[in-house]
Amino acid sequence: MKRTTYLTLLPPEEARARWFKDLDAAAFTLGEEQAPLTKALRRVLSRPVAALRSSPAFHGAAMDGIAVHAEDTFSASARKPLRLKIGAEAHWINTGRPLPQGCNAVVMMEHVHLECVQGPHAEEQWAVIEKAAFPWQHVRKMGEDMVATEIILPPGTSLGPYDLGALAAGGVLDVPVFRRPWVSIIPSGSEIVPLAEAREEDLRAGRALPEFNSLIFSAMIAEAGGEAAVLPVVPDEPAAIRDAVAAALETADLVILNAGSSAGSHDFTAHVLEGMGTVTAHGVAVMPGKPTVLAVAGGKPVIGVPGYPVSAGIAMEEFVLPLLALWQRRCPPEREKIRAVPCNPLPSRPGMEERLRVKLGCVGDTVVAVPLARGAGAVTSLSRADGIVRIPRDSEGCNAGEPVEVELLRPHAALAGALLAIGSHDNTLDLLDSLLRKAHPQFRLTSAHVGSLGGLMALKRGQCHLAGSHLLDPASGVYNRKAIEDNLDEPVVLLRLVDREQGLLTAPGNPLGIAGIEDLARPGVRFVNRQRGSGTRVLLDYRLERLGLAPGRISGYCDEEYTHMNVAAAVLSGRADAGLAVRAAANALGLPFIPVGVEEYDLVIPRRFFAGDAVQALLEVIRGAAFRQAVERMGGYGTEKTGQIVWEYAGKRAGLS
Amino acid sequence: MKRTTYLTLLPPEEARARWFKDLDAAAFTLGEEQAPLTKALRRVLSRPVAALRSSPAFHGAAMDGIAVHAEDTFSASARKPLRLKIGAEAHWINTGRPLPQGCNAVVMMEHVHLECVQGPHAEEQWAVIEKAAFPWQHVRKMGEDMVATEIILPPGTSLGPYDLGALAAGGVLDVPVFRRPWVSIIPSGSEIVPLAEAREEDLRAGRALPEFNSLIFSAMIAEAGGEAAVLPVVPDEPAAIRDAVAAALETADLVILNAGSSAGSHDFTAHVLEGMGTVTAHGVAVMPGKPTVLAVAGGKPVIGVPGYPVSAGIAMEEFVLPLLALWQRRCPPEREKIRAVPCNPLPSRPGMEERLRVKLGCVGDTVVAVPLARGAGAVTSLSRADGIVRIPRDSEGCNAGEPVEVELLRPHAALAGALLAIGSHDNTLDLLDSLLRKAHPQFRLTSAHVGSLGGLMALKRGQCHLAGSHLLDPASGVYNRKAIEDNLDEPVVLLRLVDREQGLLTAPGNPLGIAGIEDLARPGVRFVNRQRGSGTRVLLDYRLERLGLAPGRISGYCDEEYTHMNVAAAVLSGRADAGLAVRAAANALGLPFIPVGVEEYDLVIPRRFFAGDAVQALLEVIRGAAFRQAVERMGGYGTEKTGQIVWEYAGKRAGLS
Fold first, then answer.
1. Mutate which of B42, B218, B427, B434 to test chain A, going by most A C-beta atoms within 10 A?
2. CA gyration radius for chain B?
3. Which residue numbers in chain B have pLDDT < 50?
4. Helix residue ranges, H only, B500-578
5. Portions of chain B given CATH number 3.40.190.290
């Protein structure tokens, strides 16, 4: 079979630089248009804009008081106060009002003593001052803020609210802005169908793949100031692709050809584009994102973006967004960087830079990075990520605990409110996060699923704020306490989240008639297991031991999943005949459920975090009616002890003293 | 005169907390609406959204290769390779395609040896493998990314491009979002006129003030997810204000009453609102922003926002935006904070928190903060600011060089490309900034005007990258060199920016017939001077000395301005009859210009910055044709030596060795 060969893979920065050079991108001039200020928010100035009028437009009072001619007051002193007649030598004035003709200073109200005298015709007011005014004191002078003809804003400014105000103050009501760059997006691939037309049965059979990259791209382009047009899906045929690109190039400034998902589709792309112009790069040394094709056709940029969304995202961020920024003379998008400690090792293949998305939490003084799924197709890793770790091409990766640089995808400040839960998976954690955000938008619960024991280990290393755990001690039949005593040094609070029913999930209709754990050893029954260190695995092993069943007798014992929901999905898809999981997972996917037992699912929370605002907010939610009701609706949960502190562990040192 | 008394001024955080409590803001529920994904960018989810389908929807190949039933391959080994017939026991498969019925593993292409054999009817293909496949190897399993019913995104999520992708992958095409909060803006003030209706002569006479706060507010509200309606301007009359607020409250979720500029207008506001409901705060302990009024009327929030734009901005940021965020269950907006060193002292009045806007530059390892004009009306300070310094209410301010905390208004990364110029003012610096940004969008030139000598002092303290200077040594008649030798320790490059004509600016038509410096001493001639330490002031003093004229004989010698343009504005406005400035300033405002001499305006650049990318980019622009031509168009400049290194200073230590 023909294999794609990437002979000379350039690092992304170098590929981008060469592409921009081949394009002569810095010389390209977007058209301009005039935008009224009311329609100019976030438009980008195409040239410097100068003030048409000075601001303020007149000499005005900067204080409430009396306006005077300073030279008239030079004789005033405490010993010899000066009397000025209001309406003649002095004039009441409020802040912001223009100085009357002949005046060049303001005396603050606080320094004016008022005398009222019955004059020949009416009452007369006299202002008495004990200090000379110097010229232009307390006057906001004409042009103090800006003088007509001065530049208010430079080109490349993305107009924010205050910029609009500054322009208005300078008398500028219409501004020259770059016209939006026009980007045409061509989705390709023979099995690709528009999102709204995807039929469930075709999707399940793999006959159709819903097209949603163009939705992501259009949104990215809109946020970068461009205007995207999504063209009809083109099949994986060179002639069809060529025609579509040629047609798009007639109007667009930039054409994005989104490759099909088939292995050779980026070769099609490169082949077609070679025939239409120059290919700057066929493949880039970055994972995900490798099969990106950069080309110039008809003097315009064409980019072949890989089909998988994570790869596609990197191609967009590395090549399309910087080009749109350059065209609009804007700073290339750049992200804030911080140091974080990964909670797991991050192995990587040398020779290729790798971008790994992570969740982040500030635990004490440490920012902890929890790696998300790596697959190029893992679209949830895009939406869940708080940051990106770049593992350089010459590296084999990073060890757990070794600090790495992380590019932030959310404002740094937003991290402060994130409670990081590492440990056992339970669906109620997602529910808890939603309710917490609703009640306290400044907080959120970020959870990573590594099993109960993994959670206790993360707590021990100081890498999370709390851990979900349901570890049965086979000897005593008691949950969690022994594992905490065996593994943790610091004092913790054990808080009951839920009691939950564990049981066997089977295929719809339970065709194999599975009735309990003992049936898992029957020939022809394929099991799907949870990973080592998970409480569910401990429960299974405990039951197997009591039944005297060796794990080796269970087909699929080594087939591991990391969450209850993935166990349920494995059973639903027919990959396995049975799995052990919580009832809520069975209910969610409509699978039969054979109860095995009720277990205690607790949160283990170090004392030092317990009194913090975030944990207290979480506690309030856990103890609230909304959480209880929603949990009960999920089925398979007991909430009698929900929110109760079931045990307090004094820690190792206390235990020894 | 009645003085406003602020009896109990609360700090802004406390005022906000009380207002939210009076409003019961956390309990307020915005309505919801369904948004199709194509219209959902940056809308905010009103509830958690769960996946409607699993993704991937089928078990698919994660590698190119052959799909097999793993159990069929268990006998394969290097010693005893296994042959599988393609089309029967093994199937070619590309990445992403669904596994054929009966298959549960993929063997990578690299591990497959292909044999072609002439069979009875046609050529037969056989795959030969030397290693067993384990079940589910190289398979992207159904639900690996998300399982139907799992929560994709929590409420309060502002939907970004990748979020739209994750929702689409989960089969969700419409999402529940908060309806946009409705905000009505009522501009008030008897002299206020809509922006487009402001007539030049009325503005200059102070009879009309253009209304542009509503433009700023509307943009801020739009960016915060709300929808603003700007109502007609209301005069400063309690009854009119009451009626307008009452009408607005019928439909709006929040009413912003923008106070007039007159002194008592916030008292009107507070008085009117007391009659309509509860006033939580009449005045807040923050400068600018003090005259803010927070109220609840008809159960809804009403805020009286001060008239000056800087005060208004703070009221919006402190009260309106957090309320809109809370309603949408979003994180309150928070800014990244860094440490910076102010280049000037920042005095402040105790008893009142002060917010001071600053420009920022990274000079070596130090972030330097240059304070912008403080006035509540200085709208350019809003658009030019890179950050905000908060001077606490119990502080009398900060000393120069003493680090302060700065809230960033631009991404940290954008600061890296800013060259900070502190020193003499020249209009060509703004031009240079525009051309630099156009040629190299990653760089910009930020300049602060403190006069030539102030610039050298800033260089000496390591607080800027370069300084514009035109300091004449009266003894030798040579520019800049002596001042550099006297003041700087480190090696610097002296680069000619421009030669420029200095001269006297007079009122249009030169009614006083001013012909030269000597005329400034004539009775009845009012002069406007530049500040001490400026090169222009040095030039004036030099000329006065040569003429034997004592400064005391010049009226207005002590009336100081900081820029050429402000001198020109002072003359144009009639505040002075003459000033000394560059010809370009006279040309800009159309004033007569009487030449006094040509001087050398240089950039002083430390050696250690000279070779850097940013300075080199600046040099390229200075030496380019575009800069030269634009400078010549301004008039009064010579560009013969522009871009030339006119002198190199070896520094103090080198001089001593």
1. B434
2. 35
3. 1-7, 655-657
4. 535-547, 564-572
5. 444-649
B132 within 8 A of B68, measured Cβ to Cβ: no
Determine the Cα–Cα distance for residues A526 and A553; give it in Å rounded to an integer.
Answer: 11
Cα gap B492→B497, rounded to integer Å: 15
Beta bridge partners of B369: B342, B360
Spell out which residues of chain A touch residue B209, defining contact as CB-CB under 8 Å: 96
Tell me if B57 and A204 make a contact (CB, 8 A cut-off).
Answer: yes
Q: Where in chain A do CATH 2.170.190.11 domains reside?
A: 60-140
Q: What is the pLDDT of residue B389?
A: 94
User: A649, A484 in Cβ contact below 8 A?
Assistant: yes
Residue A2 reports pLDDT greater than 60: no
Residue B247 tokens read as: 């009408």
What are the phi and psi torsion angles at B316 (to 5°)? -65, -45
Cα gap A511→A526, rounded to integer Å: 13
Strand order in the sheet with B123-129: B82-85, B123-129, B113-118
Q: Can you say whether residue A104 is alpha, beta or left, with left for phi > 0 and alpha for psi between -120 and 50 degrees?
A: alpha
Burial of A183 (0-12, 13-18, 19+ CB in 10 A): buried
Cα(B108)–Cα(A183) distance, integer angstroms:
37
Q: Which of B514, B554, B519 is CA-nearest to residue B537?
A: B554
Kindly identify which residue of chain B lies nearest to residue A557, measuring between CA atoms.
B135
Indicate whether A182 pLDDT > 60.
yes
From chain B, the residues in CB contact with A589 under 8 A are: 147-149
In one-letter notation, the amino acid at residue A115 is E
In this prediction, residue B655 carries a pLDDT of 47
Helices and strands of chain B, counted as H and E runs: 20, 38
Q: Which chain B residues contact residue A148 at CB under 8 A?
A: 569, 588-589
Domain with CATH 3.40.980.10 in chain A: 12-27+181-328
Instruction: Assign residue B647 a region (left: φ > 0; alpha: ψ between -120 and 50; beta: otherwise).
Output: beta
Token digits for B69? 């039933």
Q: What pLDDT digit, counting tens, does each position of B51-69 carry?
A: 999 999 898 998 889 999 9
Which residues from chain A sit within 8 angstroms of residue B326, using beta carbons?
A: 441
Q: How confident is the model at residue A3 (pLDDT cuts 50, 70, 90)?
A: very low
Residues of B within 8 A of A326 (CB-CB) are: 441
Q: What is the CATH number of domain A32-56+144-178?
A: 3.90.105.10
Fold classification of A60-140 (topology level): Molybdopterin biosynthesis moeA protein; domain 3 (2.170.190)
Which of B330, B379, B435, B563 to mutate: most A Cβ within 10 Å? B379
Is the domain covering B354-412 a CATH 2.40.340 domain?
Answer: yes
Residues of chain B with CATH 3.90.105.10: 32-56+144-178
Which one of A263, A383, A589 has the shortest CB-CB distance to B148?
A: A589
Range(s) of chain B covered by CATH 2.40.340:
354-412
Select from B155, B139, B138, B140 the least CA-distant residue to B49: B155
Question: Least CB-CB distance to A380: which of B26, B145, B556?
Answer: B145
Contact: A141, B57; criterion CB under 8 Å: no
Fold of A12-27+181-328: Molybdenum Cofactor Biosythetic Enzyme; Chain A (3.40.980)
What CATH number should be reported for the domain whose range is A444-649?
3.40.190.290
Q: DSSP of B200-262, one letter per residue? A: HHHHHTTS-EEE-HHHHHHHHHHHTT-EEEEPPPB-S-HHHHHHHHHHHHTT-SEEEEE--SS
